[in-house]
Amino acid sequence: MPRLTLAAAVAAILVPSVASAGGMYLSTRGVRPTGRAGAFVAGADDASALWFNPAGLAHLRQWGFVGDAGFVHQSADYHRIDSGGNDAGTVSNQAPGLPVPSIGFAKRVGAKVVIGGGVWAPYAGLAKFDADGAQRYSSVDMSRSIIATIGFGVAVDLGRLRLGATVQDHIVALTSDIVLSGCPGQTVCAPEDPEFDSLNRIEQQSYFQPSGSIGVQLDATDKVTVGVALQLPVAVRGEGTLSSRLPSSGFFNGAAVEGDRADISLDLPASIRAGVEVRPGRWRIEAALDVERWSTHEEILIVPKDVRITNAPGVGTYEFGPIHLPRNFKDTYAVSLGVEGQPAKGTPLTVRAGYAYETEASPTEYLSVLTIDGAKHLIGAGLGYPVKGWDVDLVFAFATMGERTVDPTVGKAPQVNPIRDTSAMPLTTFVNWGDYRASWIVAGLGLSRSL
User: Which residues pair with 203 in a beta bridge?
Assistant: First the structure.
């Protein structure tokens, strides 16, 4: 079994999984928990407890394994009003979606101690658009980005009380295409003149971002369990590359880009989950609350290092300055209710269903296609059936957000220009006006065993 687990973990790392950041990803992950709409804090009792509440590992008497993948697809439409107040048309997400894996293994090593490890990734859908589309100043392509977490956990069984903790390493491989303005400071340009469009690719591979989690479960009675889990924040820091395509304007005839290094940083939030599970008869019913501290995600900062445009006619050299992508997110709150059980006495079939509501992280002022986010409703449903000692699980979930409108009197996401000094005259061209719609579909298959 350890060889199988190692092979599965390696495979999970190699499978592209997507990251989007209520905020940048859905509030649930994993096939079985998603069937309960993420209400899996007090009721976590298999190897997937690694990423929901590590205290739940202590339920295992011998060992447990979970391997699953949820295919996540995001539909997104953006009807833009450009900075001149004109209708710029509608663009739609072209990314096909990708499977997001979750792998976990845990084993009891003593009378009271269980240890485990796994690899998991957030359930999210990132968007891809045309490089010359109306949305180009906010984002072109984020669909090849990856976030994966490697975690190792320990749980202690104290009878009615279970305690658990994990140490984690978050691997981030960011690939983002975006169009920046290349309008020089020596001239006046129309705000969205395509002759001054500069397509840029930002790439970063950060292999060590430490974090962790702690959790507790308490059996208040034989039929009632209370659970709480705290996920620590993740600070993503690292060196990457900034590849720029020069604008087509005659200002850049004969010019060239020198250098391609950049420091990239962003913050992902801490979160706290709490739940109460009751078990009447053959059923398990849990109500849960998830609070995510997205207010720490204030901006994505890219600081070019000795990147410049050389031999520009009449000017000579343009130095690339810091690129600030303002986010100014808010904390999010998600409530969920999930049920799991056997519909008839003696049947091996397990059914699951759940509902969750989550508030938006992105304020209206800075909402953009970089992360289309809004208050979400999620409905999940799943089935489980034993086959030769293993549980085969299926899940289908649908999440949707209400249409959000960024009015020209409100929107403040700026058109970014890295070669123009804006300290004396701040940028006043805003590029996020219009209407946003999005929905998510999750379909997954899992295999698990708990002894």
Answer: 175, 241
Nearest to 185 by CA among 325, 84, 314: 314
Lowest mean pLDDT among 31-40, 237-246, 311-320, 423-432: 423-432
CA distance 48 to 50: 5
- pLDDT tens figures, 69-100: 999 999 999 999 999 999 999 999 999 988 89
**Do the Cβ atoms of 318 and 306 come closer than 8 Å?**
no
Contacts 24+ apart (CB under 8 A), 82-89: 82/134, 82/192, 82/431, 82/433, 83/191, 83/192, 83/415, 83/429, 83/430, 83/431, 83/433, 84/191, 84/192, 85/408, 88/134, 88/434, 89/134
Tokens of 287: 């109500």
Residues 6+ apart with CB under 8 A from 410: 364, 365
CB hemisphere CA count around 121 (13 angstroms): 30
Q: Report the distance separating Cα 102 and Cα 121, nearest Å.
A: 7
CA separation for the pair 277, 337 (Å, rounded): 10
Please check whether residue 78 is in contact with residue 435, taking contact to mean a CB–CB distance below 8 angstroms. Answer: yes
Domains and CATH numbers, the chain: 2-450 (2.40.160.60)
